[in-house]
Amino acid sequence: MQYSPVENQIIRNQYGRLLSRIVVDAELTGVVAAAVEELLRGARSMLDVEPAIMTEIPKGSYLHIRLIEDAGYRRNEGQRWKLERDAFTLRQVQTLEEDRLQLIGGSAAGVLYGVFELLRFISLGISPEGLVIEECPSNRLRMMNQWDNADATIERGYAGNSIFYESGRIVKDVSRVRDYARLLSSVGINGISINNVNVHDIETSFITDEFLPDVARLADLFRAYGITLFLSINFAAPITIGGLDTADPLDDTVRAWWGNAVSRIYEYIPDFGGFLVKADSEHRPGPYAYGRDHADGANMLAEALETYGGIVIWRCFVYDCMQDWRDRTTDRARAAYEHFKPLDGRFCDNVILQIKNGPMDFQVREPVSPLFGAMKDTNQIIEYQITQEYTGQQRHLCYLIPQWKRVLDFDTQATGAGSDVKRVVSGSLFGMKYSGIAAVSNIGDDENWTGHPLAQANLYGYGRLTWNSDLTSEEIAEEWTRMTFGNDITVVSTVLQMLIQSWPIYENYTSPLGVGWMVTPHYHYGPDVDGYEYSRWGTYHFADRNGVGVDRTKATGTGYAAQYFPPHAEMYESLERCPDELLLFFHHVPYVHRLQSGKTVIQHIYDTHFLGVEQAEQLQQNWAALSGLVDTARYEQVAGRLAEQVEHAQYWRDVINTYFYRKSGIPDVNGRTIY
Ligand code: GCW
Q1: Is 317 a pocket residue for ligand 1 (Cβ < 6 Å)?
Q2: Is residue 207 within 8 Å of 264, Cβ to Cβ?
Q3: Residue from 70, 117, 361, 507 carrying the catalytic annotation
Q4: How far apart are CA 603 and CA 150, in angstroms?
Q5: ipTM of this complex > 0.95?
Q6: N or C: more exposed end of the chain, with fewer CB within 10 A?
Q7: Which residue in 81, 169, 65 sits closest to 117, CA to CA?
Q8: Is the four-CA dihedral 462, 468, 472, 478 of positive or negative sign?
Q9: CATH fold for the domain made of 472-550+588-674
Q10: 77 assigned to active site
Q11: Does any ligand 1 atom lie closer than 6 A to the CB of residue 147?
Q12: Per-10-residue mean pLDDT, the chain, length 675
């Protein structure tokens, strides 16, 4: 959204002609007004034209914006999450008399998305000649989750403080939030929950008259960009702020309390999206305290919201966080499936389960959650983490789109071949009413939004992938790079390559072969191999002098592997067929176990850790070669982060290698320095 001036004269003239006159066949209010304003901003800046907005069709070249079926959508609020309403077409119509670019949106939001597509094309230098684009998003709900707290801190935030809050209140000056809404809508995001899923004291009151006027201000702002506002709620709110002595979901007074709370919210925000709920997870209150289950809890809220078209998004990140490390029968990876699979079919229509990727947490490498595909009668969406909690905290470069794509492309085999996760979450596999993707945001009030300037690619890419799950990681990275740094071929190819290589590089020098963790407890940044080994969090690697890894087989381990459909269950169960990259997630093996790659586990650990550091150094050198080709401010920011990454990768390498050398006593065959 820099809208840098277009350098290619042909492209500039073509679009300059078309955009000098814009006919808008729709009321210039709300989302359409925001779309047109954005278009003007882009046209001025990229093409140096001042478009004339007209209602009559002119002669010659022009852009024609039309909105079809908006009335229908407005009449029926239930249509809000329909895919078709976000669709748009963009095509050039050339005859002897006219040269027209035509943008037709299926709703005001469709017009907005079409405008952003057009701006993207201009900025990427894609000619309007013969353009025929028909776009409809892959997913209905394209959600952003803020983990922002009212005190302006952000849980797992690595880019400064919150742009939403200051000193316990919603900010007065919302200009930054408006820019954020623009950013999000430019990549098709259509829902946002504005507060942390860990709902603390102040945020519990967001659903009261004290805060609702302010929440409504934000809802107004997001609405103008086609984004629906949600709140995370505290399941114990009836006690904490309602003065009741229970939050039992089957208690009539509790149900009435939520009914009132919800009707009050809709007085302020008529198109309020609904609630995001973290319950019975990491000490958050929930239905278990009353002997009820997650369906009871979610359905109670769903019934309150139903009259208004609201929905409940209920998180499946439920596990025993007070586990005894000596208890080898409990397995955190199994937890979500065990808690939720038996409830399939019991949730109201307007409940959606939000399933975290992966089954443990947001580690650098995990298998896909076996819950995908396992619930045929339940709305479900996947949860990604854009903020890099376990992937370098925006100090290390880690482009996450390839990781997310692997998950979306995973064939669960739930109904035979072709049961990809992307079809589960898009709702097409089981014909679900609600479906989609959610992710935890990576932005804060840093001037560049994401701390690491290149981490913006993850925010951008998340939206693009969610809009169109068939885009490749490379396509997304290239779009972002060119729109961010211009079309210089050296810059584009270097940044593109850096992004694409970054996730495997990060994996190389951190925890090996899918075993995960080995991070400093609580902070999750640096290496601490045994940091969580004897803790209550259920995150162990079981390294001893002979071997390492978690036995999750059915035959001898925790049985987790059996949660998958065949043939995955058998593949993960088998020591020979389990993919190397996940070996230690599924098996406990001797250090001398030979991987499919031919290397022993211990040699693989040494090799990848030495290699990872060399690769990080290479990233630094590649970037250094762009000195003078990228503006100084961004050049230096990235260079600074890469220097830290290299130093820190060396630290990871030495800690991990030394740990395993000391445990195993097996030297590196190449005799490199291990301490
Ligand atoms: O990964 C863990 C984080 C917590 C987070 C939790 C969750 C919001 O360390 O900070 O809490 O996941 O997803 O609920």
Answers
A1: yes
A2: yes
A3: 361
A4: 48
A5: yes
A6: C
A7: 65
A8: negative
A9: Alpha-d-glucuronidase, C-terminal Domain (3.90.1330)
A10: no
A11: yes
A12: 95 97 95 98 98 94 88 56 90 90 94 98 96 95 98 98 98 98 98 98 98 98 98 98 98 98 98 98 97 98 97 97 96 98 98 97 98 97 98 98 98 97 96 95 98 98 98 98 96 98 98 98 97 98 98 98 98 98 98 98 98 98 98 98 98 98 98 98
pTM of the model: 0.97
Nearest CA to ligand 1 atom 13: 317
- Counting ligand 1 atoms within 8 A of each CB, the residue from 361, 386, 387, 523 with the most, and so the one to mutate, is 361
Indicate the CATH number of 9-135 among 3.30.379.10, 3.30.200.20, 3.40.50.620, 3.40.1180.10: 3.30.379.10
Residue 184, amino acid: L
Ligand 1 contact via 278 beta carbon (within 6 Å): yes
- In the chain, where the domains are located: 9-135, 141-471, 472-550+588-674
Of 23, 104, 90, 25, nearest to 60 by C-alpha is 23
CATH superfamily of 141-471: Glycosidases (3.20.20.80)
Task: Report the SS3 class of residue 70.
Answer: helix
Question: Could you give the CA distance from residue 445 to residue 152 in angstroms, rounded to a whole number?
Answer: 10
Q: Is 198 in the pocket of ligand 1 (CB under 6 A)?
A: yes
